[in-house]
Task: structure prediction
Amino acid sequence: MKRFLAFALAFLALSVTTLRADNDRIIEFNELPKAAQQFVTKYFAGRSAVLVKLDRDFMSTTYEVTLSDGTEIDFNSNGLWKDVDAKYNTMPLGFIPAQITKTLNARHAGDPIKQIERKGRGYKVELSSGLEAYFNAKLQLVRYDD
Result:
């Protein structure tokens, strides 16, 4: 019985390791969900996808796209953006809710958005100064973090 239990545990450990090793896979841009392809084409025109990865976990699937200028975009399984990190580039504002850009322009003119992330029912926005602004589902500024 002890031998069987040891074998079963070893098999389970090997299975989990094998599953975890196969989570990331490089794919072609045209294998992204249509919504993700359209998002990149519309808001990041002139920039090409240099790396597209499919990341499968037990509970979710995400797509990670790196553009030719270094911008990184994460999409959920439906192709909706989760996180956009412009790194050292100019962030296009067309996909960011207008109330967020209006609030940030009024309070932090000249400090461009470098990253935006959907957080639960709200948004986390990082400015080039490093300041992080958090917005709720009603697009109201609720707090800052630095």
